[in-house]
Amino acid sequence: MNSASVIVRILSALSIAFLLSSCGVIRTTAPSSTPDAPALSASELETAREIQSGTASWYGPNFHGKLTANGETFNMNDLTAAHRTLPFNTVVQVENVENGRSVVVRINDRGPYVGDRVIDLSRRAAQEIDMENAGTAGVRIFLLKEGDRPVTAQNASSRETFTVQLASFSSEAEALAFSRRVEGTRVEPVPISGTTVYRVYYGRYNLADEAREAQLKLEARGIEGFVKQKEN
Predict the structure, then answer these.
(1) Which helix (H) or strand (E) holds 22?
(2) pTM, to two decimals
(3) InterPro entries under this entry (predicted)?
(4) What is the C-alpha separation between 124 and 128, in angstroms, rounded?
(5) Rounded Cα distance, 58 and 47, in Å
(6) Residue 130 and residue 62: Cα distance in Å, rounded?
(7) Cβ neighbours of residue 175 closer than 8 Å, sequence gap 6 or more
(8) Please, what are the domains in the chain?
(9) Do 110 and 63 meet the contact criterion of CB atoms below 8 Å apart?
(10) What is the per-residue pLDDT for 19?
(11) For residue 82, which of 130, 132, 121, 45 has the smallest C-alpha distance?
């Protein structure tokens, strides 16, 4: 075999490899997955047990970039959800009973506090089970992985209370200045990721409905806030 034939064969092999890779036939690494949608084994999915059923809702643009109840920054494009009592970092599967579609989410926030709703999904999670346009859907919730600590509906009220969060500042002076403008508020330092933020809270309530009533009264005065469930 002469040198010219060898060169031709090498160039042909390189051309084929390039075409295959550009067409997506060869893939050496899988796309990275979001930490909010943890990979679960088949056995974990099979042993999942139903823990709740009811109405799911979703939240997104109005809360995007704000802090969740566990101190994370809410990203409506992550697979997360808010629940009233499940421990933070609990992983659940939410099934839309109307179409059979399901999504796996991690609990990182508290809520919802509206009517009989049992879970508040991120917008992306709502899209996964095709309920974004409807806004709500009947769902079944399956426990896949326990979270940070066990919390039951029976003992949650003894360890957690409801309040209305009005603002959050990186400066204590700014938080105190804001607090002085609204009677009945308090400032609490909260350590988050190696730094401290100062949150302004209004009131302490045993029931979510009581906190919601206070929130509506504040809104009537032009003061915006949201109901939050926090530990005593």
Answers:
(1) helix 3-22
(2) 0.54
(3) RlpA, RlpA-like_DPBB, RlpA-like_sf, RplA, SPOR-like_dom, SPOR-like_sf
(4) 6
(5) 27
(6) 20
(7) 167, 168, 169, 187, 198, 199, 200
(8) 42-145 (2.40.40.10), 160-231 (3.30.70.1070)
(9) no
(10) 40
(11) 121
